[in-house]
Amino acid sequence: MKGKETTRSSSSCAACKFLKRRCTPNCAFAPYFQSDEPRKFAKVHKVFGASNVSKILTEVPEEQREDAVNSLVYEAEARLKDPVYGCIGAIALLQRRMAELQHDLAIARARLARCAAAASPCPGLLGDHVNMGSSFSDLNLLATKWQW
Ligand SMILES: [Zn+2]
Fold this sequence. Notes:
With 148 residues, this protein is mainly α. It has helices at 2-10, 14-19, 38-48, 50-59, 65-81, 87-118, 125-145. This is LOB domain-containing protein.
């Protein structure tokens, strides 16, 4: 916290620089938009507007403000990449991918059950395993990226 105070007194925060105003010691943006992160504020300002971001920050308890800012930045980046759907586009894509992977898994389990019931080697299973391997690694990648 002391480091932030020092930074604040020596230079304006990214928000005040962007808005071309004087940064005060009580600036609501300063702890979350450091002077060396100008693009971070520019994104949230473009999508939400500085006054809305300020209102959100004052409504959120102080201990949750950093999370709120991270969420706003994430949503702003998603909205800038996909102006129509924003975060919902990413969520829908992941849900669709998850449904596809669950479908693939159900097919693989059914084939495995058939092979086990027949109690004989299943020639097509090895090829399917290779495909499922890549699907599982995709699923693991999604799980590590989207831990909510
Ligand atoms: Zn400021």
